[in-house]
Amino acid sequence: MIPLETRRQMIERDEGPMSICYQCELLGIARSSLYYTPSRASNKDLKLMEELDKLYLEDPTRGTRRMTNRLRKMGYKVGRCHVRTLMQVMRLKTVYCKPRTTIIDPARYKYPYLLRNLDIHSPNQVWALDITYVPMHRGFMYLLAIMDIYSRCIMGWSLSNTMEAEWVVNTLKMAVNKYGKPEIINSDQGSQFTSDEYIDFVKSLETVKISMDGKGRATDNVYIERFFRTIKYEKIYLEHPETGSELYHICTQFINYYNERRDHSSIGNNPPIVVYQKAA
């Protein structure tokens, strides 16, 4: 197979008979992976966002009030409204249990959560996908990851400085082309996953069921949340990438290691790819 970097260099960016989008599709590249300009923010906000990310990984039950209080104790002069805005940019979802005093109107949810009490016993039974904020020296980017829940194997991933539905669909499409279709795909209720582009693509797979976490229930997608914590603390925070290219290289190294050599106690102290291939 042609290396990804070589395929990137094959893209003709000048106007020609084929659009960049079509060239990316032919070469199996997520279009967003061509662009590695970190999102811009003030230095103060970047530092606040880095602290918020660490605080969230430490305790995801912190809401805007507790986050603000904690940041103030750390010496930052920041208001709750600004903290709320930054958390929205970062897609930080406070974990809390919703009160069961009334029956939730099903019309408020496009698709139900299908994983509760589900016996996950084989690979490609359930995939989970999510997006996380990644702090960088001069900006930030977003990491999308797709995980097979049974084996904990990362089936696909991509980086972008924007969160477009097209980016999600292209990454999911490449994972399906490589590993086949899962029975269920689970995500949160973010706008990328409730968009017509995403829903139409998953429906086009015909046999695949759509599952979505409940609002305020980040723990419904707990395995991929743990992966995000792992890659940040064991790799990204240690190496402090300054450019998108450096971040891509770091993620490539770690995800290959995570899939192929990092043992997981929850799957018999085996690497994810071993469990996936053995049971597939």
What is the fold's blueprint, element by element?
Elements lengths: L3 H6 L10 H8 L15 H16 L5 H10 L6 H11 L35 E11 L2 E10 L4 E8 L4 H15 L4 E4 L8 H9 L4 E4 L9 H18 L4 H17 L11 H8 L1
Helix pairs in contact: 3-5, 4-5, 8-9
Textual characterization of the structure:
With 280 residues, the protein is α/β, with parallel strands linked by helices. The chain folds into 2 domains: 4-34, no CATH class; 109-279, Ribonuclease H-like superfamily/Ribonuclease H (Nucleotidyltransferase, domain 5), CATH 3.30.420.10. The chain has 10 helices and 5 strands; from the N terminus they run αααααβββαβαβααα. It has helices spanning 4-9, 20-27, 43-58, 64-73, 80-90, 165-179, 196-204, 222-239, 244-260, 272-279, and strands at 126-136, 139-148, 153-160, 184-187, 209-212. It has a 5-stranded mixed β-sheet with strand order 3-2-1-4-5, with helices on both faces. Strand 4, helix 7 and strand 5 (209-212) form a beta-alpha-beta unit. The longest helix is centred in the last third of the chain and has 18 residues, at 222-239.
Any descriptors?
single chain, globular, 42% helix, 10 helices, Nucleotidyltransferase, domain 5, alpha/beta, five-stranded mixed beta sheet, 280 residues
